[in-house]
Amino acid sequence: MQTPILGSAYVARSVNAADSRMVNLFPEVVPEAGKQPAFLNRAPGLRRLATVGPGPVRGLWATQITGSDGYVVSGQGLYKIDTSYNATFLGTVSGSGPVSIADNGTQIFIAADPDGYIYNMSTGAFAPIGDPDFPGASTVGYLDGYFVFNEPDSQRVWVTSLLDGTSVDPLDFASAEGAPDQLLSVNVDHREAWLFGTGTVEVWYNAGTADFPLQRIQGAFNELGCSAVYSVAKLDNTLFWLGSDARGNGVVYRANGYRGERVSTHAVEFAIQSYSTISDAVAYSYQQEGHKFYVLTFPTANATWVYDAITGAWHERAGWNNGRFVRHRSNCQMNFNNEIIVGDYENGNIYAFDLNVYADDDQPQKWLRSWRALPTGTNNLRRTAHHTLQLDCESGAGYVDPALALQPEYTSPAQQLLDGSAGMAIDFVSNTVYITSTATLPYETPVPQAMLRWSDDGGHTWSREHWTSLGAIGRYGKRVFWRRLGMTQKIRDRVYEVSGTDPTKIVIMGAELILDGTSS
Fold it and tell me: Sign (positive/negative) of CA torsion 131, 136, 142, 148?
């Protein structure tokens, strides 16, 4: 029978109800003529491009005018990079948190909350905004020649002078007073300024009036606010944000017209609302091979969630550190030099998201998928004997490292492996590697492995890992399977989990499970 390995992440409040975790894998739908209607693809790895400044990378920006320069706020420095990723220091930016950036074709406005800075791309001049009427800026956008920004800790939205971010008229502000909440963030989309408060959202447009050019759009008032200043991101021709209102927090919305439409699931909301802090969430978006991803990181919770606007599926994106999943290293994004570039939250590294790289810079990238063995609604609560699980995947990809790929797969008798001190034992009949200890192996195998374990109590406790080969390079017909998987116990339910850390291509089309039921 086909066991339902495909799908998206959904770990419910009770793992007995749903325990479908997905980390560093995302689904892609095959519209026609595919082996299966969908498959799971490995998330992109991080290919280091350069180290810019001391870090962390607080913001990235690529202008749409020339495309020959990118801009990086790293630590307390602003840097310009060329297409060879050579960096030039431009000036000092205060603070240590995320920054918001916009440009008008000549000037780049950096909102560092509360300070603001202007870099003139034509003259190379960089300086803090010195106008005495400048009240400070939390976030900034660009609309019809104006920089639009919100004043920190207030309800006020401001505009600069037309095509001049260094000049601010003391009367060029208005208040988002549809509700008595604080204005957190401004984002300009489709030539309209979206003003995100803690409990509401207002949308304004350029009416061209003399004193202050922006006016509210009648009826474009949403009683859904924003939980985190830097959670707002453009994607799929609209806006996404982490929501908040008078009834609660921690729901992810996308704008549908002028109203917020929920895109998070109960499982994602359960995870988010269990975090002690969500107000520090940061988000960015990117598109790669047609997938449109909204990437939402919770620094305090050390977790990253990703929503694909094309499939509507969620997954976790994570680093692997000291034997556990941690937040993804990416902090912000720009599309520059034909690369999707992200910045590191901890140092000055900038990386390319590369679907042909299977590690996070010099660290391993662990992928994981857990799922219920039986399709929804088919568990009759009887014990079952599980004989074989075969992973329908692309085998024979081998290691990415060419030096390792040249080595043959280990097939000779393995007396040293059968020795318990080696740390594992091989069952040659089932082609399964069993972990027996944590001792160092007497050799390093060049063949990528997949690791399987299972839970017979709905996902509360797990078996030991069982390893099997994904095939040396060129062995495209290699079967990836595990045998003699035992009989379900206790609540007569089984959850499988397959994972791996080796630097190899991972594409999973499905899984076939052979089992027998009993009458008890």
Answer: negative
pLDDT at 426: 45
Instruction: Give pairs for 77-84: CB < 8 Å, separation 24+.
Output: 77/53, 78/110, 78/117, 78/119, 78/126, 79/52, 79/53, 81/50, 81/52, 81/350, 83/337
Asked if the model's pLDDT at residue 429 lies above 90, the reply is no
Q: Express each pLDDT in 383-416 by its tens digit.
A: 899 999 999 999 999 886 544 434 444 333 333 3
Any idea how long the chain is? 520
Phi, psi (degrees; rounded to nearest 5) at 405: -65, -25
Q: Edge-to-edge, what's the strand order for the sheet holding 45-51?
A: 330-336, 339-344, 349-354, 45-51, 359-360, 363-364
Q: Which fold has domain 10-43+369-517?
A: Jelly Rolls (2.60.120)
Contact 102, 110 (CB under 8 A): no
CATH superfamily membership of 45-364:
YVTN repeat-like/Quinoprotein amine dehydrogenase (2.130.10.10)
Q: What is the largest CA-CA distance in the chain?
A: 86
What residue spans define the domains of the chain? 10-43+369-517, 45-364
- The lowest-confidence range among 43-47, 191-195, 245-249 is 245-249
